[in-house]
Specification:
By secondary structure, the protein is α+β, with helices and mostly antiparallel strands. It contains eleven helices and 14 strands. Helices cover 41% and strands 21% of the residues. The longest helix is centred in the first third of the chain and has 29 residues.
């Protein structure tokens, strides 16, 4: 025979009350946290779809559901549900089996692109994060900043027109500056020009460009161009790229005759027996890193030579204005010199 135990009942009541409080506590309860996460994940999927469609349309490529599923890192069901909601909200439409942005959808996509490129510019100019991290970090932040926060960020950066890769940053009204130049494989031999844009997608090709230590803003001269390779000179070095990799570089030809001097090079190429004069710092060096180099005396006209070679490889110590300063090869490659 069961007897009523008021103490046990009271304990059970308190346990249930605590569980309900933990689950449904205003704003911080598990139920609300889960609900926000689901909503946030849906927003991320929708915005990633919009951005992908924007890039596909800008490159004049068509995209269907199969292609979209392949390029996005979400499960098929989530993408299908997002597509349904986006169609209802007039962000996208189907033309046969091809997905297209509506005018509203394109405006939304441009806002996402604006946040992404502004954040990459912030990471390049204001932080010490390596360029290999910019894209992934900007991918996360593009879903978090609202309209007012984005405008504040743009103002803080001086309303830049281009991101660190040379991509135009949309203004708050959606206008964009024009990228000047031509894809490197389309330039004839002996063309002299300046790298104005480095495409950071697909990632596998971008990583190859990073490994080659190719810098935006660098002056180049094409010396070979065929179906198997593109060869060009830049800052005292010779670069050899497959055409598919070279296509990620945009170069603005320089019409007036200009000579790329043989003795202009990167500080990283200086040998122990050589002396040189600094002629500038590459545009690849930005923000705090650039200011630090200038503060250390790496200014135009300064004389420099190697003071100490590290037997382990790097860093080397360079003698400049009577002071020995250690630099890694990656840092030295961003300082341009004219050898004696």
């Amino acid at each position: 025979m069961n007897t009523y135990n008021p103490i046990s009942a009271l304990i059970i009541f308190f346990i249930i009350a605590i569980l309900l409080f933990v689950l449904f506590k205003p704003k911080k309860g598990w139920f609300w946290i889960l609900k926000r996460n689901l909503k946030g994940n849906e927003k991320t999927i929708i915005e990633d779809i919009l951005k992908q469609l924007y890039h596909f349309e800008n490159s004049e490529n068509k995209v269907d559901m199969k292609t979209l599923v392949r390029v996005l890192n979400f499960n098929n069901k989530s993408i299908v549900e997002a597509i349904k909601k986006m169609t209802i909200n007039n962000l996208i439409y189907f033309e046969s089996d091809i997905l297209k942005l509506t005018e509203t959808g394109r405006e939304y996509a441009v806002r996402i692109v604006r946040v992404h490129r502004l954040w990459e510019r912030y990471l390049a100019d204001k932080t010490g994060f390596d360029k290999t991290e910019w894209h992934d970090r900007a991918e996360k932040m593009e879903h978090k900043l609202n309209h007012d926060e984005t405008n504040t960020l743009a103002l803080h950066l001086g309303n830049p027109k281009f991101d660190p890769h040379g991509d135009p940053i949309p203004t708050k009204t959606g206008k964009m500056a024009e990228v000047t130049g031509t894809e490197l494989p389309l330039l004839p031999v002996n063309t002299v020009g300046r790298i104005t844009h480095i495409e950071d997608e697909p990632e596998i090709i971008y990583k190859q460009i990073l490994a080659e230590n190719i810098h935006i803003g660098s002056l180049i001269k094409v010396i070979e161009n065929n179906a198997t390779r593109i060869v060009f000179l830049s800052e005292g070095e010779e670069f050899r790229l497959a055409p598919i990799v070279a296509a990620n570089l945009t170069v603005a030809p320089i019409e007036k005759e200009i000579v790329i001097e043989d003795n202009i090079a990167r500080l990283s190429s200086l040998k122990a027996s050589e002396t040189a004069e600094i002629i500038g710092i590459s545009r690849e060096s930005r923000g705090e890193s650039r200011r630090r180099l200038l503060d250390l005396g790496f200014v135009k006209g300064a004389r420099i030579k190697i003071d100490l070679i590290n037997p382990l490889g790097e860093p080397h110590a360079y003698l400049i204005k009577g002071t020995s300063i250690a630099l890694r090869k990656k840092q030295a490659s961003k300082i341009l010199i004219k050898k004696d």
